[in-house]
Amino acid sequence: xxxxxxxxxxxxxxxxxxxxxxxxxxxxxxxxxxxxxxxxxxxxxxxxxxxxxxxxxxxxxxxxxxxxxxxxxxxxxxxxxxxxxxxxxxxxxxxxxxxxxxxxxxxxxxxxxxxxxxxxxxxxxxxxxxxxxxxxxxxxxxxxxxxxxxxxxxxxxxxxxxxxxxxxxxx
Length: 171
Ligand code: XMP
Prior knowledge:
CATH architecture: 3-Layer(aba) Sandwich
Number of strands: 9
Bound molecules: xanthosine-5'-monophosphate
Oligomer: single chain
Order of helices and strands: EHEHEEEHEEEE
CATH topology: Rossmann fold
Structural class: alpha/beta
Helix content: 10-25%
Shape: globular
Number of helices: 3
CATH class: Alpha Beta
């Protein structure tokens, strides 16, 4: 298998800096907690928060619906062993990719039920033409065509996460 570069490293860096600046402006003076969805958004989290120049906490939640090469979502399993206390916090939920929208929509509900003051969403990538659940991300890095992508945290069968760019996996 090979990977064709779709979004180069420098473009991701620049876009996350922009988004981080927007987040900082929008949340100045607010009790912000950025909650990243493991595992795919780890690298985006690390890069985004270094551009969010206002005090904030970070937290993690694990959600999985994809197993290996699966292309359709199965039941979403939320594991919040690592999840932070979000009561009375303004939460920004960060995911790697918005595909059908099921993951993000379920997690927004979940975090709201945990007593968050507000819940908004950020995604690094949004796939065109795949969404089945109506949710609009508040911050979006890039829209991409309907292809299976890897790199910059995104995996195929737990591999390729380390690539510094986002690429399309060619079988
Ligand atoms: P939904 O359909 O719930 O899916 O919006 C979001 C989750 O699906 C995974 N996903 C991908 N992972 N390459 C990946 O490595 C892809 O092209 C892809 N499309 C969806 C991902 O875990 C995301 O959080």
